[in-house]
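Wed. Picked up where I left off yesterday with Cephalosporin-C deacetylase. The coffee machine is broken again, so keeping this brief.
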Amino acid sequence: MFVDMPLAQLREYRPERSEPAGFDAFWERTLKEARGHALAPAFTELGDTHLASVRVHDASFAGFGGHRIGGWLLVPAGAAEPLPCVVQYIGYGGGRGLPHDWLLWPAAGYATFVMDTRGQGAGGWSGGGTPDPTPGSGPETPGKLTRGALDPDEYYYRRLYTDAVRAVEAARSHPAVDGGRIVVTGGSQGGGIALAAAALADGVRAAMIDVPFMTHVRHAVEITDDEPYGELSRFFRSQPHLVDTVLDTIDHVDGLNMAARATVPALFSVALRDPITPASTVFAAYNHYAGPKDIRVWPYNGHEGGGAHQKTEQLRWLAELPLS
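Structure written out below (C-alpha coordinates, as returned):
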Protein backbone atom coordinates (compact mmCIF):
# COMPACT_ATOMS: atom_id res chain seq x y z
CA MET A 1 0.00 0.00 0.00
CA PHE A 2 1.03 3.62 -0.34
CA VAL A 3 2.43 4.68 3.02
CA ASP A 4 2.75 8.46 2.81
CA MET A 5 1.30 11.59 1.18
CA PRO A 6 -0.18 11.67 -2.34
CA LEU A 7 2.45 12.24 -5.03
CA ALA A 8 1.19 15.71 -5.96
CA GLN A 9 1.56 16.79 -2.34
CA LEU A 10 4.97 15.16 -2.06
CA ARG A 11 6.26 17.15 -5.02
CA GLU A 12 5.41 20.37 -3.16
CA TYR A 13 6.53 19.20 0.28
CA ARG A 14 9.29 21.53 1.50
CA PRO A 15 9.19 21.63 5.30
CA GLU A 16 11.12 24.08 7.40
CA ARG A 17 14.60 22.92 8.32
CA SER A 18 15.81 22.62 11.92
CA GLU A 19 19.28 23.98 11.40
CA PRO A 20 21.55 24.33 14.43
CA ALA A 21 23.31 27.62 15.03
CA GLY A 22 26.88 27.27 13.83
CA PHE A 23 26.14 24.36 11.45
CA ASP A 24 28.74 25.45 8.91
CA ALA A 25 31.33 26.20 11.58
CA PHE A 26 30.73 22.75 13.07
CA TRP A 27 31.57 21.03 9.80
CA GLU A 28 34.45 23.34 8.97
CA ARG A 29 36.00 22.52 12.33
CA THR A 30 35.28 18.81 11.93
CA LEU A 31 36.92 18.55 8.51
CA LYS A 32 39.85 20.74 9.55
CA GLU A 33 40.51 18.37 12.45
CA ALA A 34 40.31 15.37 10.14
CA ARG A 35 42.72 16.93 7.66
CA GLY A 36 45.16 17.44 10.50
CA HIS A 37 45.88 13.73 10.00
CA ALA A 38 47.75 12.76 6.86
CA LEU A 39 45.35 11.12 4.41
CA ALA A 40 47.97 8.46 3.68
CA PRO A 41 46.00 6.64 0.97
CA ALA A 42 47.22 3.10 0.33
CA PHE A 43 46.36 0.91 -2.67
CA THR A 44 47.49 -2.69 -3.10
CA GLU A 45 46.59 -4.26 -6.42
CA LEU A 46 45.28 -7.80 -6.04
CA GLY A 47 46.29 -10.43 -8.53
CA ASP A 48 44.06 -13.35 -7.59
CA THR A 49 40.53 -12.00 -8.10
CA HIS A 50 39.77 -13.92 -11.35
CA LEU A 51 38.17 -10.73 -12.66
CA ALA A 52 39.80 -10.32 -16.06
CA SER A 53 38.09 -7.05 -16.97
CA VAL A 54 39.00 -5.03 -13.86
CA ARG A 55 42.03 -4.24 -11.78
CA VAL A 56 41.17 -4.52 -8.10
CA HIS A 57 42.97 -2.59 -5.38
CA ASP A 58 42.59 -3.15 -1.65
CA ALA A 59 42.41 0.45 -0.45
CA SER A 60 42.65 2.34 2.82
CA PHE A 61 42.96 5.93 4.02
CA ALA A 62 42.80 8.00 7.20
CA GLY A 63 39.27 9.06 8.04
CA PHE A 64 37.89 10.78 11.13
CA GLY A 65 40.43 10.87 13.94
CA GLY A 66 43.08 9.43 11.64
CA HIS A 67 41.38 6.03 11.88
CA ARG A 68 42.17 3.68 8.99
CA ILE A 69 39.15 3.17 6.73
CA GLY A 70 39.11 0.30 4.26
CA GLY A 71 37.76 0.19 0.74
CA TRP A 72 38.06 -1.13 -2.78
CA LEU A 73 39.23 0.65 -5.91
CA LEU A 74 38.18 -1.04 -9.14
CA VAL A 75 39.53 0.21 -12.47
CA PRO A 76 38.61 -1.16 -15.91
CA ALA A 77 41.52 -3.21 -17.21
CA GLY A 78 43.48 -1.55 -19.98
CA ALA A 79 42.35 1.99 -19.19
CA ALA A 80 44.92 4.27 -20.81
CA GLU A 81 43.85 7.56 -19.21
CA PRO A 82 42.57 8.65 -15.81
CA LEU A 83 38.87 7.87 -15.59
CA PRO A 84 35.88 9.47 -13.91
CA CYS A 85 35.27 7.72 -10.60
CA VAL A 86 32.05 6.72 -8.86
CA VAL A 87 32.53 6.78 -5.08
CA GLN A 88 30.12 4.28 -3.54
CA TYR A 89 28.67 4.41 -0.02
CA ILE A 90 26.84 1.51 1.60
CA GLY A 91 23.46 0.91 3.20
CA TYR A 92 22.86 0.40 6.91
CA GLY A 93 24.60 -2.60 8.44
CA GLY A 94 26.69 -3.33 5.36
CA GLY A 95 30.38 -3.17 4.57
CA ARG A 96 32.47 -3.10 1.43
CA GLY A 97 31.67 -6.73 0.61
CA LEU A 98 33.71 -8.41 -2.13
CA PRO A 99 35.15 -6.88 -5.30
CA HIS A 100 32.75 -8.68 -7.63
CA ASP A 101 29.83 -7.00 -5.82
CA TRP A 102 30.80 -3.71 -7.50
CA LEU A 103 31.24 -4.45 -11.21
CA LEU A 104 28.46 -2.24 -12.63
CA TRP A 105 30.37 1.02 -12.87
CA PRO A 106 33.67 -0.50 -14.07
CA ALA A 107 31.64 -2.33 -16.75
CA ALA A 108 30.31 1.07 -17.84
CA GLY A 109 33.82 2.47 -18.10
CA TYR A 110 34.17 4.22 -14.75
CA ALA A 111 36.57 3.63 -11.91
CA THR A 112 34.76 2.96 -8.64
CA PHE A 113 35.89 3.52 -5.08
CA VAL A 114 33.88 1.64 -2.43
CA MET A 115 34.15 2.94 1.14
CA ASP A 116 33.86 0.44 3.96
CA THR A 117 31.58 1.67 6.75
CA ARG A 118 33.19 2.01 10.15
CA GLY A 119 31.67 -0.23 12.81
CA GLN A 120 29.27 -1.90 10.36
CA GLY A 121 29.55 -4.80 7.95
CA ALA A 122 28.08 -7.58 10.10
CA GLY A 123 24.42 -7.04 9.25
CA GLY A 124 24.19 -10.33 7.40
CA TRP A 125 24.23 -9.08 3.81
CA SER A 126 27.56 -7.38 2.99
CA GLY A 127 30.62 -7.89 5.13
CA GLY A 128 33.11 -5.28 6.25
CA GLY A 129 36.03 -4.99 8.59
CA THR A 130 36.64 -1.35 9.55
CA PRO A 131 36.36 -0.71 13.30
CA ASP A 132 34.94 2.38 14.96
CA PRO A 133 37.46 3.11 17.71
CA THR A 134 35.45 6.04 19.15
CA PRO A 135 32.22 4.58 20.53
CA GLY A 136 30.89 7.71 22.24
CA SER A 137 29.53 8.02 25.75
CA GLY A 138 26.06 8.00 27.26
CA PRO A 139 23.15 5.57 26.95
CA GLU A 140 22.37 4.12 23.54
CA THR A 141 20.03 1.71 21.80
CA PRO A 142 21.71 -1.17 19.90
CA GLY A 143 22.63 0.12 16.46
CA LYS A 144 24.22 3.38 15.32
CA LEU A 145 21.53 6.06 15.47
CA THR A 146 21.92 6.82 19.16
CA ARG A 147 25.67 6.18 19.46
CA GLY A 148 27.16 9.34 20.92
CA ALA A 149 23.89 11.17 20.27
CA LEU A 150 24.02 13.32 23.41
CA ASP A 151 26.79 15.47 21.91
CA PRO A 152 27.24 16.44 18.23
CA ASP A 153 31.01 16.06 18.61
CA GLU A 154 30.61 12.44 19.72
CA TYR A 155 27.89 11.43 17.28
CA TYR A 156 28.53 8.38 15.10
CA TYR A 157 27.36 10.06 11.90
CA ARG A 158 29.81 12.91 12.38
CA ARG A 159 32.55 10.33 12.10
CA LEU A 160 30.94 8.49 9.21
CA TYR A 161 30.28 11.61 7.12
CA THR A 162 33.85 12.75 7.72
CA ASP A 163 35.06 9.38 6.45
CA ALA A 164 32.93 9.96 3.34
CA VAL A 165 34.65 13.26 2.57
CA ARG A 166 38.05 11.70 3.06
CA ALA A 167 37.04 8.81 0.78
CA VAL A 168 36.52 11.34 -2.03
CA GLU A 169 39.98 12.72 -1.31
CA ALA A 170 41.48 9.22 -1.32
CA ALA A 171 39.83 8.34 -4.63
CA ARG A 172 41.11 11.55 -6.20
CA SER A 173 44.65 10.70 -5.14
CA HIS A 174 45.00 7.60 -7.33
CA PRO A 175 46.63 8.13 -10.75
CA ALA A 176 43.97 6.01 -12.50
CA VAL A 177 41.28 8.48 -11.36
CA ASP A 178 40.51 11.84 -12.93
CA GLY A 179 40.22 13.88 -9.75
CA GLY A 180 38.04 16.45 -11.49
CA ARG A 181 35.33 13.92 -12.34
CA ILE A 182 34.12 12.39 -9.07
CA VAL A 183 30.54 11.17 -8.64
CA VAL A 184 29.16 10.08 -5.26
CA THR A 185 26.37 7.54 -4.89
CA GLY A 186 24.60 5.21 -2.50
CA GLY A 187 21.22 3.94 -1.39
CA SER A 188 19.43 4.29 1.96
CA GLN A 189 22.21 5.03 4.47
CA GLY A 190 24.54 5.19 1.49
CA GLY A 191 22.22 7.74 -0.11
CA GLY A 192 22.34 9.87 3.01
CA ILE A 193 26.13 9.65 3.03
CA ALA A 194 26.28 10.58 -0.67
CA LEU A 195 24.08 13.60 0.05
CA ALA A 196 26.43 14.67 2.83
CA ALA A 197 29.48 14.16 0.61
CA ALA A 198 27.87 16.26 -2.12
CA ALA A 199 27.49 19.07 0.41
CA LEU A 200 30.81 18.76 2.23
CA ALA A 201 33.48 17.35 -0.09
CA ASP A 202 35.58 19.36 -2.52
CA GLY A 203 35.78 18.16 -6.11
CA VAL A 204 32.49 16.26 -6.33
CA ARG A 205 30.91 16.82 -9.75
CA ALA A 206 27.63 14.91 -9.40
CA ALA A 207 25.59 12.80 -6.98
CA MET A 208 23.21 9.86 -7.37
CA ILE A 209 21.13 9.64 -4.21
CA ASP A 210 18.77 6.69 -3.78
CA VAL A 211 16.04 6.58 -1.10
CA PRO A 212 18.28 8.50 1.33
CA PHE A 213 18.27 7.73 5.05
CA MET A 214 18.92 10.30 7.82
CA THR A 215 16.89 13.01 6.10
CA HIS A 216 14.03 14.91 7.77
CA VAL A 217 14.63 12.74 10.83
CA ARG A 218 12.30 14.66 13.15
CA HIS A 219 9.46 13.76 10.80
CA ALA A 220 10.67 10.23 10.09
CA VAL A 221 10.41 9.17 13.73
CA GLU A 222 6.80 10.38 13.78
CA ILE A 223 5.62 8.33 10.78
CA THR A 224 7.63 5.08 10.82
CA ASP A 225 8.76 2.54 13.40
CA ASP A 226 10.63 0.48 10.82
CA GLU A 227 14.32 -0.04 11.36
CA PRO A 228 16.65 1.76 11.62
CA TYR A 229 14.46 4.70 12.69
CA GLY A 230 12.93 2.33 15.24
CA GLU A 231 16.17 2.61 17.19
CA LEU A 232 15.27 6.21 17.95
CA SER A 233 11.71 5.31 18.94
CA ARG A 234 12.94 2.72 21.44
CA PHE A 235 15.52 5.11 22.85
CA PHE A 236 12.93 7.87 23.29
CA ARG A 237 10.54 5.44 24.98
CA SER A 238 13.03 4.78 27.77
CA GLN A 239 14.76 8.19 27.78
CA PRO A 240 12.01 10.77 27.16
CA HIS A 241 13.99 13.49 28.89
CA LEU A 242 16.70 13.17 26.19
CA VAL A 243 14.47 13.51 23.12
CA ASP A 244 15.31 17.16 22.45
CA THR A 245 19.02 16.61 23.10
CA VAL A 246 19.23 13.73 20.62
CA LEU A 247 17.21 15.45 17.92
CA ASP A 248 19.34 18.59 18.30
CA THR A 249 22.43 16.42 17.74
CA ILE A 250 20.91 14.74 14.69
CA ASP A 251 20.13 18.14 13.16
CA HIS A 252 23.90 18.49 12.66
CA VAL A 253 23.84 15.60 10.17
CA ASP A 254 20.27 15.73 8.85
CA GLY A 255 20.04 15.49 5.08
CA LEU A 256 17.77 18.53 4.85
CA ASN A 257 20.60 20.74 6.05
CA MET A 258 23.06 18.96 3.77
CA ALA A 259 20.72 19.31 0.79
CA ALA A 260 20.50 23.07 1.26
CA ARG A 261 24.27 23.23 0.76
CA ALA A 262 24.74 20.78 -2.10
CA THR A 263 24.99 22.40 -5.54
CA VAL A 264 26.27 19.68 -7.89
CA PRO A 265 23.84 17.98 -10.31
CA ALA A 266 21.94 15.18 -8.56
CA LEU A 267 19.67 12.31 -9.49
CA PHE A 268 17.43 11.09 -6.66
CA SER A 269 15.15 8.08 -6.39
CA VAL A 270 12.08 7.61 -4.20
CA ALA A 271 9.64 4.74 -3.74
CA LEU A 272 6.06 5.42 -2.68
CA ARG A 273 5.68 2.12 -0.78
CA ASP A 274 8.87 2.51 1.24
CA PRO A 275 8.26 2.20 5.01
CA ILE A 276 11.97 2.57 5.89
CA THR A 277 12.71 5.93 4.27
CA PRO A 278 9.17 7.22 3.67
CA ALA A 279 8.64 9.24 0.53
CA SER A 280 8.03 12.50 2.39
CA THR A 281 11.49 12.31 3.97
CA VAL A 282 13.07 11.84 0.53
CA PHE A 283 11.06 14.58 -1.16
CA ALA A 284 11.86 16.95 1.71
CA ALA A 285 15.57 16.55 0.94
CA TYR A 286 15.00 16.68 -2.80
CA ASN A 287 12.92 19.84 -2.60
CA HIS A 288 15.57 21.55 -0.45
CA TYR A 289 18.42 20.43 -2.71
CA ALA A 290 20.22 23.57 -3.91
CA GLY A 291 21.72 22.29 -7.17
CA PRO A 292 20.35 21.03 -10.50
CA LYS A 293 18.30 17.93 -9.77
CA ASP A 294 15.95 15.28 -11.05
CA ILE A 295 14.12 12.44 -9.33
CA ARG A 296 12.81 9.06 -10.41
CA VAL A 297 9.58 8.06 -8.66
CA TRP A 298 8.76 4.35 -8.24
CA PRO A 299 5.08 4.13 -7.20
CA TYR A 300 4.90 0.37 -6.67
CA ASN A 301 8.32 -0.20 -5.12
CA GLY A 302 9.55 -0.33 -1.56
CA HIS A 303 12.94 0.33 -0.08
CA GLU A 304 14.80 -1.11 -3.06
CA GLY A 305 13.84 2.15 -4.74
CA GLY A 306 13.47 0.78 -8.24
CA GLY A 307 16.38 -1.64 -7.91
CA ALA A 308 17.94 -2.59 -11.25
CA HIS A 309 15.57 -0.24 -13.07
CA GLN A 310 17.00 2.69 -11.11
CA LYS A 311 20.51 1.55 -12.10
CA THR A 312 19.43 1.79 -15.74
CA GLU A 313 18.26 5.35 -15.07
CA GLN A 314 21.58 6.18 -13.43
CA LEU A 315 23.61 4.76 -16.32
CA ARG A 316 21.66 6.87 -18.77
CA TRP A 317 21.71 10.02 -16.62
CA LEU A 318 25.44 9.83 -15.96
CA ALA A 319 26.27 9.12 -19.60
CA GLU A 320 24.38 12.25 -20.61
CA LEU A 321 25.87 14.44 -17.89
CA PRO A 322 28.89 16.54 -18.87
CA LEU A 323 31.49 15.83 -16.18
CA SER A 324 34.30 17.90 -17.69
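Quick read: The CA atoms of residues 274 and 302 lie 4 Å apart.
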